[in-house]
Amino acid sequence: MDETALAKAHAVDPKLLEMLACPLTKAPLKWRPETSELVSPSAKLAYPVRDGVPIMLPSEARPLAEDELDR
Q: Mind listing the pLDDT tens digit for each residue in 14-71?
């Protein structure tokens, strides 16, 4: 499976993305297909999406480096 097909296979439903918010800041999230993460720029965290399921636990989130916030 090529990278584009893989990203589509693990994409987050756009309607679900509209409803989700960062559990810490309540700000909207951005989908980052290349890493399969939902990004909260305001909290500087990236929440993983595993098998199409967003893991919205701050304890599971990855801190974002400053250079990642600009993407």
A: 898 899 999 999 999 999 999 999 999 999 999 999 988 899 999 999 999 998 887 6
Query: Domain 3-64 is in which class?
Result: mainly beta
Pick the closest to residue 17 from 29, 32, 35, 33 (CA basis). Answer: 29
Q: Which residues pair with 40 in a beta bridge?
A: 45
Please list, in sequence order, all residues whose beta carbon lies within 8 angstroms of the beta carbon of residue 15, skipping any fewer than 6 positions away.
Answer: none
Among 50, 52, 51, residue whose Cα is nearest residue 62? 50
pTM of the model: 0.81
Q: How far, in Å, CA of 62 to CA of 25, rounded?
A: 15
The structure tokens listed for 17 are: 């993305």
Instruction: Please name the helix (run of DSSP H) or strand (run of DSSP E) that holds residue 27, with its range, or none.
Output: none
